[in-house]
Design brief:
The protein is about 70% helix and about 0% strand. The chain is an all-alpha fold. It has one domain.
Length: about 180
C-alpha cells in the first residue's frame, strides 16, 4: 500500500496530467482545429511531422519522469538516513557529538546511492533493493545517454513509481 504522504505522488500526478494534455493536443491536431492550433508550433506542420513531434514528447516525458522520481527517492533516502542518525548529536562531549553529526550529515550527501541502499539490507529484501539499483542504472542512462551503459530492459514510469513508493514505505515501517 502506498502511503498518503508519498513524496513521489506530486511527480506522478503531474506526469499523468501532462500525459492527458498530450492526448488532448493529439486530438486537436488530428481535427486540425485552426482556432485552437493558432499560436502553437503545430500550425502549418505536416501531419506526420506533428505526429512524430508528439510521439517524441511522450517518450521524453517518460524519461523525464523517471529521472524526477529517482531524484525525489534519492532525497528521501539521504534525509531518512540523516534523521535516523541525529542520535550522534547526543554523544558526549556535546560539542564532539554535534560536530560528528554535522560531518556525517554532510558526508551522506556524497555517498553512492547503492551504498546507502545497502544500509537497508536485512529488513528489506535484497531483490527489492536490486530493483531500486536497476532503476538507478536506467536513470543514469537517461541522464547521460552513454550507449556503453545502456541498462538491460526498460523501466516504465509506472513501474518506477510503484517500486520506489513501495520501497519508501517499507523503509519507513522497518525503522
Amino acid at each position: 500500500m502506498i502511503s498518503a504522504d508519498n513524496p513521489l505522488d506530486s511527480v506522478w500526478q503531474t506526469y499523468l496530467t501532462t500525459k492527458d494534455c498530450l492526448k488532448i493536443a493529439d486530438k486537436v491536431r488530428k481535427r486540425n482545429d485552426l482556432q485552437i492550433l493558432e499560436s502553437t508550433k503545430f500550425i502549418g506542420m505536416i501531419e506526420h511531422e506533428a505526429f512524430e513531434e508528439l510521439r517524441a514528447c511522450h517518450a521524453e516525458l517518460d524519461n523525464l519522469v523517471i529521472v524526477s522520481l529517482w531524484a525525489v527517492f534519492e532525497r528521501f533516502l539521504i534525509e531518512y538516513v540523516q534523521a535516523r542518525c541525529t542520535v550522534l548529536k547526543t554523544l558526549e562531549p556535546t560539542d564532539f557529538g554535534l560536530h560528528l553529526y554535522d560531518q556525517f550529515a554532510s558526508a551522506v550527501e556524497q555517498w553512492r546511492l547503492s551504498d546507502t541502499l545497502d544500509l537497508f539490507k536485512g529488513p528489506i529484501d535484497s531483490a527489492r533493493l536490486g530493483d531500486a539499483k536497476n532503476i538507478k542504472k536506467h536513470r543514469d542512462y537517461i541522464a547521460h545517454r552513454n550507449p556503453k551503459k545502456k541498462p538491460e530492459g526498460g523501466a516504465t514510469p509506472r513501474v518506477v513509481y510503484e517500486t520506489l513508493s513501495q520501497l519508501m514505505e517499507r523503509i519507513r515501517v522497518s525503522w
